[in-house]
Design a protein that fits this description.
Helix content: 10-25%
CATH class: Alpha Beta
Mean pLDDT: 94
CATH topology: Multidrug-efflux Transporter 1 Regulator Bmrr, Chain A
Largest sheet: 8 strands, antiparallel
Strand order of the largest sheet: 1-6-8-7-3-4-2-5
Radius of gyration: 16 Å
Order of helices and strands: EEHEEEEHEE
CATH superfamily: Regulatory factor, effector binding domain
Number of helices: 2
Strand content: 35-45%
Number of domains: 1
């Protein structure tokens, strides 16, 4: 029994709080986006209360036509807790939107450490090597799921490849 190379799973439909940033570096975009989301979670919302944190926090990356370079805009999101799915509180910050997403099927691989453009690009390449060529997965859009605080050494992350069909 060796290491699990990848896993496939389906995520349910639901409401997500999302913010898009286009900083010079990928790391800056996710950091600044997450800070805005934290303020929303911690009372800067129409409910006026702490909403509770869900994991993972997910960043959506779009690729340039070369297939190896990230587009500048990165969307960082978190799934609203169950208590707020029916009637999502609205953010005070106009950069944050509440989005209803349909269910998605992803092929995912876990990796540990930081999530820089370099490490994420390496993880995308590794998963493509494992999977081989297929038209069933999107090549211009990937997701990075982060499960732990950025200060945690060797934190748990995943790269998500999105299936075209459920």
């Amino acid at each position: 029994m060796g290491e699990e190379l990848y896993e496939e799973r389906v995520y349910a439909a639901g409401h997500w709080a999302c913010v898009t940033r286009g900083e010079d570096l990928y790391e800056q975009s996710i950091s600044m986006g997450f800070m805005k989301l934290m303020r929303f979670i911690c009372k800067e919302n129409s409910a006026g209360k702490y909403l509770g944190m869900t994991v993972p926090v997910v960043s959506n990356i779009h690729m340039m036509e070369d297939g190896t370079t990230f587009k500048k805009d990165v969307q960082t999101s978190f799934f609203l807790p169950a208590d707020f799915q029916t009637n999502p509180p609205q953010p005070h910050d106009s950069d944050i939107t509440i989005v209803y997403r349909e269910p998605i099927r992803v092929v995912t691989r876990t990796f540990l450490g930081t999530t820089t453009e370099e490490t994420v690009t390496r993880q995308i390449s590794l998963l493509w090597e494992i999977l081989g060529a297929t038209d069933d997965l999107c090549r211009d859009n990937y997701m990075v799921a982060v499960y732990e605080n950025p200060g945690v050494p060797r934190r748990r992350n995943e790269i998500w490849f999105i299936r075209r069909n459920l």
